[in-house]
Amino acid sequence: MAEVIAILNQKGGCGKTTTAVNLSTSLALFGKKILVIDMDPQANATTAFGLEKNEDNSIYRVLTGQQTLDEAIVATDISGLDLLPSHISLSGAEIELSKDIGFPFILKESMDGIQDNYDYILVDVPPSLGILTINSLVASDSVIIPIQAEFYALEGMADLLDAMNLVETRLNSPSPIKGILITLYDSRTRLGRDVYQNVKQYFGETEFIFKTTIPRNVKLAEAPSHGKPCVIYDEECIGTEAYNNLALEILDMNEQVVGEN
Asked: Are 89 and 55 in contact (CB under 8 A)?
């Protein structure tokens, strides 16, 4: 059964979509069967895979009961990697979903029956703490939090952790932090090193911080305009190397868990 991982941070510009797109692609290239769910109305993950924003197949139609999740999934050009696309219509879904007394569980319930088809399901969560984020947390087994190595990187982190705790306690749906991912990192700058140390101090020994850091890399920024993940667009750049290393780190973590069980 697939592990469902939410890529989550309510701050924009921290590399959530970049991570969802490139980590999923790296995992697929390592032979895993992957589904990416684009829960962001901006649909950047959708276009990053070279797909048009099309309401005919979209997470909006799934959440509003017009399609089953299985019907809405589309294949990408990457072997072993499927996508549940997003569309701007999703931006109005929060009002519609709030009318349903069971709104926090809509995504989770829609995923029944498909998790056996994949090794990992990655959810690209919008930069907010609203209904779409709550649905993503309830449906997920774990969370990766990208944190950019920039000033104010930890701003709002207490609110994010409080929201996760609220979902766990009130909805009885824990989503433990799988790892903290430092993005936009430049070890040559004092700011980058300081933020890295601040993140370690903030989380202390309570949460896992990935050994892999994601560097500032122009290829990571260029790739979406070509409709390709960076790990396909430029197989040898440092951004690709970083996401391949992150995928290997996650695979190793899960093998250790299996071994312990």
From this structure: yes
- Residue 20 CA to residue 6 CA, distance in Å, equals 9
Phi-psi category of 231—alpha, beta or left, where left has phi over 0 and alpha has psi -120 to 50? alpha
Strands 142-148 and 177-183: parallel
Where does the chain have alpha helices with state H?
16-29, 44-48, 59-63, 69-72, 93-97, 106-110, 131-139, 157-170, 190-203, 218-222, 230-233, 238-260
Whether residue 177 contacts residue 145, with contact meaning beta carbons closer than 8 Å, is answered with yes
Beta strands 120-124 and 34-38: pairing type?
parallel
- Terminal-residue alpha carbon distance, the chain: 16
Give the chain's residues under pLDDT 70: 205-206, 256-261
CA distance 254 to 232: 25
pLDDT tens per residue, range 39-68: 999 999 999 999 988 778 899 999 999 999
pLDDT at 26: 98
pLDDT of residue 79: 97
Residue 23, C-beta contacts closer than 8 angstroms, at least 6 positions apart: 7, 122, 144, 243, 246, 247, 250
Tokens of 244: 């391949």
pLDDT for 248 equals 97
Q: How far is CA 159 from the centre of its chain?
A: 19
pTM metric for this prediction: 0.93
Contacts for 71 with CB less than 8 Å, ≥ 6 apart: 57
